[in-house]
Design a protein that fits this description.
Blueprint: E1 17-28, E2 33-45, E3 50-54, H1 61-69, E4 76-81, E5 84-85, H2 91-97, E6 101-104, H3 118-133, H4 138-176, H5 182-215, H6 220-237, H7 246-266, H8 269-295, H9 300-303, H10 313-325, E7 331-335, H11 343-359, E8 363-368, H12 371-377, E9 380-385, E10 388-393, H13 395-400, H14 405-412, H15 453-457, E11 463-466, E12 469-471
Helix pairs in contact: 3-8, 3-10, 4-5, 4-7, 5-6, 5-7, 6-7, 8-10, 10-11
Bound molecules: adenosine-5'-diphosphate (ADP), iron/sulfur cluster and magnesium ion.
Magnesium ion (MG) is lined by residues 61-62, 335-336.
Amino acid sequence: MAGSGDAHLRPPTETLLRAEHLVVEFPVGRSGAKVHAVSDISLDVRPGETLGLVGESGCGKSTTGKAIMQLPRPTSGAVLFDDEDLTELSGSDLRKVRPDLQMIFQDPISSLNPRRRVGDIVAEPLRIWASEQHPPGPTIGLATRLMHLAALIAFAGAALVVTLWLLGAVLPYLANNESFGLSGAWEAIGPTGGTLMMWGLVAGPLMWGAGNLVRDRVPTARRALIGLAVVQGVLALIGATGAGTPLSVVAWAIGAVAAVAALVCTVVPAGRNDFAAMAEVRVEHDRIVRRVLSDVGLDPDSAMPRRPHEFSGGQCQRICIARALVLDPKVIICDEPVSALDVSVQAQILNLLQDMKARYNLTLVFIAHDLAVVKNVSDRVAVMYLGKVCEVADPDDLYAHPAHPYSAALLRSIPVPDPTVSQSGATLSGELPSPVDPPSGCRFRTRCPKAQDLCAAEEPTLRAVGENHYVACHFPNEA
Ligand SMILES: Nc1ncnc2c1ncn2[C@@H]1O[C@H](COP(=O)(O)OP(=O)(O)O)[C@@H](O)[C@H]1O
Ligand code: SF4
Ligand SMILES: [Mg+2]
């Protein structure tokens, strides 16, 4: 396959991250056609290295980055990280690896939740990871399961009432062809059934949410539980739920479960200790969030209480970098992290990424469509075209002697900031062909000035044309 081959891969003992023969295809409509977004590409990165991944928009760079992260999983191929194949992992095994692999996206503003405060956004990965690292003890675990069970029963009761109501409406309609009688069936359900449904729909999710707060040992869980128990108890006591009706039984049951859970969290020593231990973890999280925010150049005191819309694009990208750093990852995949920013801010963010790489011992995969940006930050560059890798080389070598006609055309299309200098040589012409039906042989042949019959008949694979310089082309330029 064009751009396939793994001649450029280094020995597995030298690399931290390897993608081998990665394929990502997306189905299109019902015709059975597929978007061939990534077609048998292999990449590797050594510890501490920055791999630049360049190519035109739509060539499959982001899809490659996401496939490495298993978001979504590739159609086929392997992703080896620290000797583990991520494509073989699932569930908690995959979750354990996730903190080591983080991603920064192109549009910093839309990748931050506008309703949350920056302190919470940056702390969120820590909180999610804390529930893996510090699962609740048996006492809190039991209280959580009890609350989730009560929530499910309340919700199931509401679902039963809704089902009976709909059946009552639809069955006469089917049997006698009478009019579809939703209101008649509602009357048959009666006020108790109706109130029971409302109660289940409200109390079920409330109880589920409170259960999650207890599981995560959030301090507000205790107040929420006491409130829930008191409200349910008072409503049942004053007869608002109708003494002896199914509704009063549900109200008492939910109140009792909330009261038991409140006791477990506030009085039972095992529960109290679990909450206290988590409070210490949260203090540590706060310390880490503050440190990371100041490392990326933001003042924690002013940034943490604010929301993303109060920051500029560059500051939002700093927040995204902080969020990626907070779990102390080994690899960060930067998907066009500066493409959406002003040129002056681009330089600041690139410098910041370089600083963070040194400070946090990071390995980077740096995706960009701009070769000039990639040259400055990369130790090795892979050029992609229509789901394939067409050239891999050291940046200086690639920029001085591009061997693939596509790389050469990309380099010629970099604007020279000098009006007296004319852009020399042919730049890229034509559109990227459709990845649904890519050209046979070499995928670049429809735009290549050097294409010959062989290029349509046979797909070139990556082969060495110099030291650490690999190209997938039948007729490469002289290196
Ligand atoms: N979820 C998806 N469903 C269908 N096609 C997709 C999906 N994601 C990406 N593609 C297609 O895959 C190709 C590669 O996209 P992408 O990886 O985003 O390119 P790049 O990041 O290089 O601009 C494009 O043709 C795009 O339209
Ligand atoms: S010369 Fe042939 S193989 Fe090489 S890039 Fe052009 S079309 Fe592809
Ligand atoms: Mg992209």
